Amino acid sequence: MSGINKVILVGHLGKDPEVRHLDGGVTVASFPLATSESYNKDGRKIEQTEWHNIVMWRGLADVASKYLKKGKLVYIEGKLRTRHFEDKEGHKKYTTEVVAENFTLLGRKSDFEDDQNTAAENKQEEQIDFNADGGEDDLPF
Q1: Distance separating alpha carbons of residues 58 and 21, to the nearest angstrom
Q2: What is the pTM of this model?
Q3: In this predicted model, what pLDDT tens digit does every residue of 86-119 receive, in sequence order?
Q4: Segment 15-19 long-range contacts (CB within 8 Å, at least 24 positions apart)
Q5: In whole angstroms, what is the distance from residue 111 CA to residue 114 CA?
Q6: CATH superfamily of 7-35+46-134
Q7: Integer Cα distance of 77 and 11 in angstroms
Q8: Between the N and C ends of the chain, which has fewer C-beta atoms within 10 Å?
């Protein structure tokens, strides 16, 4: 039986995506994503924040560079990938990343569009889905 490698995160971007263009025209975008959870300890509310390294490739990276900005709330589906590299001193380093397969922008419609909307349109809740082939799926809910 094969295993399952599936990650689902909802969080806020810690900074704008860093977009790079590799040899052969391949685009890659990376950014940190913060997820937070709260719990009570001894009658006090404690909030714990985890930071996740997100990587998006090709068409999804192109879409991310257009729509994702620091502070935006986003739903991401992907898989964990651990890779290794050598630092400047020649030491082997490991990093674990979430390789995104699709994402959905969460929030108000005004979060996704230019400021040309009317006030009534800005109050409408909206979500826009993007998948690994860079396509956009406008959902009615």
Answers
A1: 9
A2: 0.76
A3: 999 999 999 999 999 999 999 876 666 653 343 3
A4: 15/70, 16/68, 16/69, 16/70, 17/56, 17/61, 17/64, 17/65, 17/68, 19/61, 19/64, 19/65
A5: 8
A6: Nucleic acid-binding proteins (2.40.50.140)
A7: 12
A8: N
